Amino acid sequence: MEFIQTLCMAMGILLLFILGRVLSLYWVTPSRVYRKLRRSGFGGPRPSFPLGNLKEMYNKEKKHPPFGSLTTINHDIHSTVFPYFARWIESHGKVFTYWLGTKPFLYIGEPEFLKQMSSGILAKNWGKPNVFKHDRKPMFGKGLVMAEGEEWVLHRHVITPAFSALNLKAMMGLMEDSAINMLDTWSRQITSGEKDIDVERELTTMAAEIIAKASFGLNHQTGREVFDKLRAMQITLFRSNRLVGVPFSKFLYLKQTLESRRLGNEIDELLLSVVNSRKASPQDDHYQQDLLGILLKENKLTSRELVDECKTFFFGGHETTALALTWTLLLLGIHPEWQTQLRDEIKEVTGDGPLDSTKLAQLRKMGWVMNEVLRLYSPAPNVQRQARGDIKVGDRIIPNGTNIWIDVVGMHHDPALWGDDVNEFKPERFKDNIHGGCKHKMGFLPFGFGGRMCVGRNLTMMEYRIVLSLILSRFSLSISPNYSHSPTIMLSCRPSHGLQLIVQPL
User: Fold this and answer.
1) Is the omega angle on the peptide bond into residue 45 within 30 degrees of 0, that is, cis?
2) Does the annotation place 454 within a ligand binding site?
3) Model-level pTM?
């Protein structure tokens, strides 16, 4: 009897300890951090733990402004894809705190604050929000996009040579072949009587094929499997609200958690078999200069790290280019006069000869168009960091460990930075200014900023020019009546229902 009483007392003490620990982690500590941020001068919407501000962020009763009719498509996407940020800016300005569950975030939509905050901080000294590292582990693992510190330095060092001018030039033929195959398919579809082509789907498939072959030497079947599973994981992780940052949310959304882990494991197995096969085989000249070949040659990453980098660059390497091209075709479909201008420039620069890297660089107007597209419909809608030490900005202190959310879409659509025509498609704004006339150079961030700027940006720009040149040389484009303009954020900014265009041979 005495033993049972002692056992019950011990269990009671253990239960109280666990309860106290839970309350400390998910109520007391967040409340203390909240007060500390307020004392540091950062206002924002009042959180309600353990949900933080998620209830307001996902309030479905809020009506979004319409995007307009087919003939008057509205490019003011910020108030629709991030309606809660648009509301909070009106009340709290362009720098404030908000909470994902029990995780505080410092929202930044002010380029001067961003400049002062990031000044003097080395790329390796930025962290990534732990809540996202854990949530997105099945998709990115510990690849470059999530790496920190000396680990990030090592990965960046071994990856950068893969995107040298010489290696990119070697990929041009493969890019042209994949693009031509896609366009030949369009021709057959048009001949068979199809009026609409979902170019978003076509471009995404083509870009995935290019990155699979050019960077990893994957055959069609393996590349397709990896692509399909990554897309399924993207939908699982980002299409629905899973209360990220709320304690035990993974158990509340157990089906999605298990599904993402299953897909992650299957992708890992596929890519690990590729890595092991390449390690076991003699170095083929065809593979030595692709991304995986360079990583293997450096011999500084483990097989696990190699798999994570393959996942990271397979996803990022095709998604950014495909979406930039997708939104470009939408805007060119609305503005046929820019199709004509680009077509004339392509003919003037290339004549009847083949494309080469020198000629691609001479397509200046195409560069203006690309920048304007990346401004209006940035595929990467935000940049995330985590403070690794207190950061002083003016008379305010960002405490160590604070998560930081930099709203790229918000700054790209800010009339205070761009003028009253901020939501209009005007590529000429980049004619004489690489920042497009933005009043602050940190207000235009198509590929991020600082030392952690996208390592594959030159690959994206080259592939963009090649594919767009080939498309405009063969077809004219107009918007299909079946297209519904509804941009959405699913990690990237993409059309909710694809992009249906009427494509006609020249």
Assistant:
1) no
2) yes
3) 0.91
